[in-house]
Amino acid sequence: VQLQAYGGGLVQPGKSLRLSCVLSGFSLDYYVVGWFRQAPGKAREWVSCAGNSDGSTYYADSVKDRWTISRDIAKNTVYLQMDNLKPEDTAVYYCAATNRYGSTCARRPNFDFWGPGTLVTVSS
């Protein structure tokens, strides 16, 4: 069971990036996947989530109306489309997954599997 996040980089404020979380060894069909970020000197923040059977989604207030999470079952990948990026979005981004019974993005799940992070830097 592995997750790998891709797509980080340096981007100017107001621009976009798309992060990808590729799942290996298990089917995305059965898992809830979340995105977290951690900026230097700050606590880890849960920013988005995509549910499986209930189709639930979650966005932190700080990213709501700017970002979109989506699932591609065929590619076993979850995407985080980040538009209108701001300097305060600078952080290492991690994806995580769980298949615990009853997990839903309507309330923060306990994620069991984590991938290494990808750095997003928003700067002019």
Summarize, please.
With 124 residues, the protein is mainly β.
Q: Work out the helicity level.
A: under 10%
Tell me how many strands there are.
11
Low-confidence stretches: none
| Amount of beta strand | over 45%
Biggest sheet record: 7 strands, mixed
Helix/strand/pairing class, anyone? Answer: mainly beta
Mean pLDDT value: 95
Q: In whole angstroms, how far apart are the ends?
A: 37 Å
Structure description:
The structure is a single chain. The chain has 124 residues and is an all-beta fold. Helix content is 0%, strand content 48%. The protein has no helices and eleven strands. Strands 2, 4, 5, 6, 9, 10 and 11 form a seven-stranded mixed β-sheet that branches. It has a four-stranded antiparallel β-sheet with strand order 1-3-8-7, with no helix packed on it. Strand 7 and strand 8 form a beta hairpin. The model has no long low-confidence stretch (mean pLDDT 95).
Please specify the SSE layout and strand pairing.
Elements: E1 2-6, E2 9-11, E3 17-24, E4 32-38, E5 45-50, E6 57-59, E7 67-72, E8 77-82, E9 91-98, E10 113-114, E11 118-122
Parallel strand pairs: 2-11
Antiparallel strand pairs: 1-3, 3-8, 4-5, 4-9, 5-6, 7-8, 9-10, 9-11
